């Protein structure tokens, strides 16, 4: 804006007086001449026009020009720069510069002054500490800088430039201040709105705070702006000026809702100014609850899905297509009424008596309008299964026939089971040529294939009459150690229930430990202590016959055998067991102490092996005795030095062997049973340095052990020595 100050009294001189009727003209030599009045008037006008032209040209050369922007925009808190550009023929020292601002009331207030000798910021103003002025002589530019711009700084500022010769000029700029508002908020009503309200109902309110200039709020429904000021829509804005000078704006929307508004989204758009443009922001979207009356009612069975059977729980749902909370629902079945809570009715453990027509009635308590809907329910049933006959007693070899039926509203399927195993399909069970295996419990299962879990069961008990039949166990020949207790069990089938008696081979009756009658027969048990070999009999009998089963028990004896011989020859004592051992071994096992093991072979083989072993030992004893009588052993041919004997003749082990792969029973020196192996091994053992052959005489009867000792020595002694040794041996034993 540029304003020029000129001397307007020179531009518009007063008109000449009316009495002037004559004019003077200048000749070429300068002598004035009088002319007529009209001519004089024309010459006067020409002179006056020339004088005005000269004066105008003189004043144009003497003007100061100032130019400024119309406005400067800045955000609150930032720095603003207002530029003042001027032109003048005078030097900078002949210029005076001043800055002013215009208050809200239109008053001019100086804030800065500068001339050739002075630069001064006016004191006691709101700009005293926040402004500074920079002058650029080359570009004839003056810049006013204002820091920390506030809302109150939105004023008009004046730049005035005064020249000593060129006059005075000023320019004006408006400073515009902006502040971005806070994020807008929206709040919808929490209660529902009825569509039949006669006046607009409040939907919600939007608010935006601390903006400058004042922000603008626009309401939207489903992306379409809402226009207010009508009978259907009311928008009520309100503005608050905060102590900071900022604006807070609030807008409240009210309208008459429709059913379609139940799904509508409402929100607000806020527009506000910033330096150089306009900005926009939106609130969150809200929904409102719209209550509208029903025009129809529907009722249906929510569960179970599909067909319904007796014992089920039925869940009814009853809904209208409206949603007014004032609606009341009732379900009727015949003359009976059921109150509906939360649009749901549950009937538990239903029967076929609850078949039929169900009607749901709805009444709006606001408008008293009544509506109804209906559905039909059918409850399927399956009556208990009936088995005929329920209990059957039948003789072996006859034919079994039984039937099973159950009345149902749907097609059924029948199956027969025994011990969990399927035995027959169909309503009739037929078993030909029955045996004891046929006896037991049969379960008839009737199901409805169309409905899961719909089934009925009944039991048929079959008893087969006949003589007792003992179920033979896997093992009836047993072996047990002496003094141990053995338990024998006997399982007998038969009807009537057989009587069971336990006896021994000699007819002795054993006391029964326990006896139980079970579905598959009678179970009897006896316990006895093993003292020797024995045979026990399980005897079962009833009116149709008898049966018996023998248990053979072999007694096992564990023994240890060792032979010791003491000699007094040359006043020394020797032990036979340390140098000469009779070993009876099984397979490749050799020990000084033999242990009897239980046999798993048959009794006949064991007895045969024992007889063979006894015969072999008898023959051996006879040979030794014959040699003794002939004097071939034990001192019959004179005395010999034992130290001269070879180690191969000193110690001999007798071992009986058999090619039979079956186990054998071994005999000790005195005929005791030692090992199960049928082997006798005769081999030398390591001699004892203190062993000597004891002489025997024919006057004494040597024992079998003495003969073995002599035979192992393999030397002869004098008759006297033999007699002495025999006497000492007799005293010892």
UniProtKB/TrEMBL annotation:
Pfam families: C2-set_2 (PF08205), Ig_2 (PF13895), V-set (PF07686)
PROSITE patterns associated with the record: IG_LIKE
Signal sequence extent: none
Major location (coarse): membrane
Molecular function (Gene Ontology), one example: vascular endothelial growth factor receptor 2 binding
Compartments reported by the entry: Membrane
Cellular component GO terms, alphabetical: cell-cell contact zone; membrane
SMART domains: IG, IGc2
Domain Ig-like: 62-169, 184-287, 293-372, 384-461, 468-554
UniProt organism field: Hippocampus comes (Tiger tail seahorse)
Keyword Amino-acid biosynthesis appears in the UniProt entry: no
Gene3D superfamilies on file: Immunoglobulins (2.60.40.10)
Bilayer topology annotation: Single-pass membrane protein
Name of the protein described by the UniProt record: Melanoma cell adhesion molecule b
Lineage: Eukaryota, Metazoa, Chordata, Craniata, Vertebrata
Compositional bias per record (Basic and acidic residues), positions renumbered to this chain: 1-10
Record-level GO BP terms: homophilic cell adhesion via plasma membrane adhesion molecules; regulation of Rac protein signal transduction; regulation of wound healing
Membrane spanning stretches: 45-64, 605-628
Keyword list, A-Z: Disulfide bond, Membrane, Transmembrane, Transmembrane helix
Region (Disordered), start-end ranges: 1-22, 680-700
InterPro entries named among the record's database cross-references: CD80_C2-set, Ig-like_dom, Ig-like_dom_sf, Ig-like_fold, Ig_sub, Ig_sub2, Ig_V-set
């Amino acid at each position: 804006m540029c304003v020029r100050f000129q001397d307007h009294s020179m531009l518009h001189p007063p008109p000449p007086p009316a009495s002037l009727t004559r004019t003077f003209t200048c000749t070429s030599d300068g002598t004035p001449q009088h002319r007529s009045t009209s001519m004089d008037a024309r010459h006067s006008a020409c002179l006056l026009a020339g004088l005005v032209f000269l004066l105008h040209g003189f004043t144009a050369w003497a003007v100061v020009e100032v130019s400024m922007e119309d406005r400067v925009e800045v955000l609150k808190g930032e720095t603003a720069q207002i530029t003042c550009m001027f032109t003048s023929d005078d030097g900078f020292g002949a210029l005076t510069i001043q800055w002013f601002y215009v208050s809200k009331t239109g008053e001019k207030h100086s804030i800065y002054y500068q001339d050739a000798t002075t630069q001064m910021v006016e004191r006691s103003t709101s700009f005293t500490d926040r402004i500074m002025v920079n002058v650029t002589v080359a570009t004839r530019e003056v810049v006013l800088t204002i820091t920390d711009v506030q809302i109150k700084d939105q004023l008009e500022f004046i730049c005035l430039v005064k020249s000593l010769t060129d006059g005075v000029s000023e320019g004006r700029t408006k400073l515009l201040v902006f502040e971005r508002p806070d994020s807008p908020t929206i709040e919808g009503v929490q209660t529902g709105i009825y569509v039949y309200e006669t006046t607009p109902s409040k939907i919600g309110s939007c608010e935006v705070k601390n903006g400058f200039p004042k922000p603008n709020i626009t309401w939207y429904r489903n992306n379409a702006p809402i226009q207010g000021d009508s009978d259907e829509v009311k928008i009520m804005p309100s503005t608050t000026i905060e102590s900071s000078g900022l604006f807070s704006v609030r807008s409240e929307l009210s309208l008459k809702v429709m059913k379609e508004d139940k799904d509508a989204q409402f929100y607000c758009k806020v527009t506000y100014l910033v330096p150089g443009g306009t900005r926009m922001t939106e609130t969150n979207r809200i929904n409102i609850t719209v209550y509208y009356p029903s025009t129809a009612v529907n009722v249906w069975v929510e569960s179970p899905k599909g067909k319904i059977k007796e014992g089920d729980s039925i869940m009814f749902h009853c809904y209208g297509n409206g949603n007014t909370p004032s609606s009341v629902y009732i379900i009727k079945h015949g003359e009976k009424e059921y109150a509906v809570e939360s649009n749901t009715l549950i009937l538990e453990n239903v029967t076929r008596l609850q078949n039929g027509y169900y009607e749901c009635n709805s009444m709006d308590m606001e408008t008293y309008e009544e509506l109804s809907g209906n559905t039909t329910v059918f409850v399927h049933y399956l009556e208990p299964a009936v088995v005929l006959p329920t209990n059957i007693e039948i003789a072996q070899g006859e034919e079994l026939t039984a039937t099973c039926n159950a009345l149902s509203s749907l097609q059924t399927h029948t199956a027969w089971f025994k011990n969990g195993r399927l035995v027959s399909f169909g309503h009739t069970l037929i078993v030909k040529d029955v045996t004891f295996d046929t006896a037991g419990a049969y379960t008839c299962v009737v199901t409805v294939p169309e409905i899961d879990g719909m089934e009925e069961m009944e039991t048929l008990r079959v008893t087969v009459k006949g003589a007792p039949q003992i179920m033979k166990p896997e093992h009836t020949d047993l072996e047990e150690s002496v003094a141990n207790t053995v338990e024998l069990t006997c399982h007998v089938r038969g009807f009537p229930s057989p009587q069971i008696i336990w006896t021994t081979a000699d007819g002795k009756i054993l006391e029964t430990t326990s006896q139980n009658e079970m579905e598959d027969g009678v179970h009897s048990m006896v316990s006895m202590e093993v003292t020797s070999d024995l045979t026990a009999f399980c005897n079962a009998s009833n009116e149709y016959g008898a049966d018996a089963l023998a248990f053979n028990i072999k007694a096992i004896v564990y023994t240890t055998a060792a032979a010791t011989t003491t000699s007094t020859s040359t006043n020394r004592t020797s032990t036979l067991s340390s140098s000469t051992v009779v070993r009876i071994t099984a397979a490749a096992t050799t020990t000084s102490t033999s242990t009897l093991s239980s046999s798993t072979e048959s009794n006949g083989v064991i007895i045969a092996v024992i007889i063979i072993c006894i015969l072999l030992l008898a023959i051996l004893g006879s040979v030794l005795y014959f040699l003794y009588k002939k004097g071939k052993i034990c001192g019959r041919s004179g005395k010999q030095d034992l130290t001269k004997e070879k180690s191969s003749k000193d110690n001999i082990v007798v071992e009986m062997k058999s090619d039979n792969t079956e186990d054998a029973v071994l005999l000790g020196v005195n005929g005791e049973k030692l090992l199960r192996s049928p082997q006798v091994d005769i081999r030398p053992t390591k001699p004892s340095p203190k062993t000597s052959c004891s002489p025997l005489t024919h006057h004494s009867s040597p024992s079998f052990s003495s003969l073995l000792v002599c035979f192992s020595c393999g030397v002869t002694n004098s008759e006297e020595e033999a007699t002495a040794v025999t006497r000492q041996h007799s005293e010892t034993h």
